[in-house]
Structure formats: C-alpha cells, structure tokens
Amino acid sequence: MNYDVLIVGTGVGGLYTAINLNENIKVLMITKDSVRDCNSYLAQGGVTTILGEDDLESFISDTLKAGNYKNNVKAVSKVGKNSIKNIKNLSRLGVPFEKKDGKLKYTREGGHSKNRIVYCEDQTGKAIVEELIKVVKDKSNITIMENTTLTDLLIEYNTCYGASIINNNRLIKVNTKAVVLATGGIGGLFNSTTNFASMTGDGLALAIKHNIKLKDMEYLQLHPTVLYEKENKGRRLLLSESLRGEGGVLVNLNGEKFIDSLLPRDVVSAAVLKEIEKTPDKPYVYLDMTGFTKEYLTNRFPYIYEECLNRGLKMESDLLPVAPAHHYCMGGIEVDLYSRTNIEFLYAVGEVSCTGVHGSNRLASNSLLEALVFGENAAENINSKINEITINLDKVNSFSDSINMKPLINYVKGKADHRYDKLFNC
Ligand SMILES: Cc1cc2nc3c(=O)[nH]c(=O)nc-3n(C[C@H](O)[C@H](O)[C@H](O)COP(=O)(O)OP(=O)(O)OC[C@H]3O[C@@H](n4cnc5c(N)ncnc54)[C@H](O)[C@@H]3O)c2cc1C
C-alpha cells in the first residue's frame, strides 16, 4: 500500500492529528481493535484548560509541582498556551462540554489549585472521540482500517519509510512519507489497571527494537481511586478524581481521614498504599460519597453511578472500596516541541510519546490536552514538509510479522519502582 501518512492508533492523539492534516494528504489510520477501543474513550474527568492568559502561570506552577519539577517547562507552557484554542475547536466540532448560561463549567481534580477542567458528565473521552470519529469519517482523504495491527516500522539510516501491518492474517507493507505513532500506553502489561488490555506499549517495543529514543520510562502513574473488586482481573473501574474534586473524601477502614484527598496522584496513592499495608486481608480504603444525594450523583456522575450500582454499590449510602492500580505511563518516545522523534519522518503523539509535560507524575486531565496540542503540532509539521518528501517504494524490505514484547517488559520492569512488582501481569 502507498499512503502519504500512516497514523497508528485511533485515540484522541491519532484522531486529532488526522483531522489537522491538509485534505490533499492521503492518510491511513489503523487500530488494533475497533475504532472505539482506546483509553481515550474511557477518559472520565475532563480536559484541562487555562481560564485565560492570567491563569497560565498558575497552570504551569500546578503542573510542575505535580510532576515533581521533572517536567519540560517549554512543553508545559506550550500546552497551556494552546489549550483555549483547542477546547474552542472541540466545541466547534460539536463536543458537548458542560455549560451554564452559555459559558463553560469547570471542575477540579487533585493537584489543581482551582477549577479549570472542562468535562462532559463523567464520560468526557467518549464525547470527544465520538465527535472526532464523525469528522474523520467525513473526510475523503482518510481511510480507517480496524482490527489491523502494526507489526514493524520500516527504518533505514535514521529515516522512517513506512510500516508493516497485519489485517485478516495478511501481512501488508505500507510505504509512506511519514508515520505517526499514537499507540497509547502500557496498561495491558499489568494485572491491575484502568487501561484496555490491548494497550501493551507496542510503539515502545518497536522503539526499543529500532533504537528510537525513550525518555522517563521509570515514571509510572498509579491512580489512587480504582474500585477494588477481589475477583476482578484486568481492567478495573476508575472512580474519577473529579469525585474528590467535587467533595468526595478518602477514609480508612475505621472511617478516619488519612490524607488530603486533593493532593497530586503520586502522593495520594502512596498514602493509600501505606494504609493498605496495615490490613493485608482487606487491601483497600474507602471513597466516601455519602455526603451527596442520589439525584446529584446520577446527574453529575451517571456512568460511574450506574457502574457502581451494577456491582451492588449505592454511592449515596455505601462506602466505595478503592485501591491504587496502574493508570498512566509518563515516559515514552522522546519527542521535540513538534512531536518529532529522533527518526526522520517518524512522529509520536499522545501517551506513547514523552513531551516532558508530565514530569514524574501527570497532573489530572493534562493527558487529553497534551494529545490535542501535540497532535495538532505533528499535523502542522507534516503539512509544512510533505511536498518535499517522496515515497520511497521498496526502500526497506526487512520487517517482521509480530512484535517481540519481551525487551519492553524487561525494560519497564527494570525501571519500575519495586512497589509495582505485584501489579505486573507478565
Ligand atoms: C479510565 C481512564 C480514565 C482517564 N481519564 C482521563 C481524563 O479524564 N483526562 C485526561 O486527560 N486523561 C485521562 N486518561 C488518560 C487518557 O485517556 C489517555 O492517556 C489518552 O487518552 C491517550 O490517548 P492516545 O491517543 O495516546 O491513546 P489511546 O486513546 O489509548 O489510543 C491508542 C490507540 O492505539 C492503537 N494501537 C495500539 N497498539 C497498536 C498496534 N500495534 N497496531 C495498531 N493500533 C494500535 C489502539 O488500538 C488505540 O486505537 C484516562 C485514562 C483511563 C484509562
């Protein structure tokens, strides 16, 4: 196959890159499963935006503080500065962010010093992905292939010439001018995670194979409030941080507060793990939402309310057992401010990339924002260069029909904090 651009992944990173590419660029998008099976679809809390120019400094300060000052300040500043524009664009495309009297409503999550997160009930990711899919499907220059897996990148002399993919047991070589990796995170490597099981870090495994630079892989994020279910394996139900942002409180098994519930995730997760160590037969604490009425909870958090009810828990009267689980990978393929990797014509956006925005601990709701801003960036850079590039047919003919995951698994295990040992699935 010959395409100008191959985008691997149909989460917010991939979709937003695609819609920002010029319409004379022939694009192929592929996704392992169905187009909606991506972590972006699961996002609950919302998307961060600065409230105005005068909020930029405070946004940067909150992001750096949460990231333990390991962040790239230029990247943080870039996502902050470009936030309002991209939220406006999503609204224009039809994303139904909550509003009051025609103005956006803002919620709050841990680590933010003020309410600055826009949201769509408690299924913000679904609302965004649904609108972006509509836009992409309307564009005649973009083809989407579902159930199609990237198996290798065609790289020679530091240049990417395309990729190999598998569809219906057919191994296909795709010659391109540029490839965008938007393959998401690595939650599928863990037995207790909020991610889809298919998020196995395929882009990162190929990065290791081809000596593409990775950065900050030691920084893995646990989410402190994931519903504890003894029998459940694999993907767990996230209880969004916005529950605490709206007033929910963490208490231990004796009903006592043990931490300020709105501190950044790494601090809260560490405090929860410490509490849990005291009661190994009951490895959880409680999220207390009983201060709220059923009416409020079903309006503000309809999805989470329903999911809890399906598991026999009434949020207005039952304490919700929670424990930390793997949630997000701060590290990834190192990219510059234009989403470029160290390989010519290979870009990375979204969770697979490491822009440096998150430092060692991502501030809540900054991930979708990063995927939007750096997706737009990648597209702009490709738009400006594409006419200078020719497709090199048959330039690279050595590629594989499967990805060897072992080196990535060993690499991540080697980097991870020993507290994660129990969480690994492999
Ligand atoms: C439960 C949950 C709630 C969250 N809530 C929020 C929130 O409120 N706000 C926020 O900012 N962030 C949130 N996050 C994080 C955020 O959703 C993700 O980090 C972000 O959506 C990642 O987007 P992405 O486009 O990089 O990857 P994803 O949306 O995960 O998409 C990855 C894509 O890559 C494809 N893919 C992977 N490997 C291959 C392969 N080999 N071949 C072909 N395709 C492949 C997948 O099929 C998928 O289409 C949440 C995450 C989870 C799990």
Automatic annotation (TrEMBL):
Gene3D superfamilies: FAD/NAD(P)-binding domain (3.50.50.60), Succinate dehydrogenase/fumarate reductase flavoprotein, catalytic domain (3.90.700.10)
Pathway connected to this protein: Cofactor biosynthesis; NAD(+) biosynthesis; iminoaspartate from L-aspartate (oxidase route): step 1/1
Domain of life where this protein originates: Bacteria
Keyword Oxidoreductase included in the entry's annotation: yes
Domain FAD-dependent oxidoreductase 2 FAD-binding: 4-368
GO MF annotation terms: L-aspartate oxidase activity
Protein family: Belongs to the FAD-dependent oxidoreductase 2 family. NadB subfamily.
Protein name: L-aspartate oxidase
Highest classification ranks of the organism: Bacteria, Bacillati, Bacillota, Clostridia, Eubacteriales
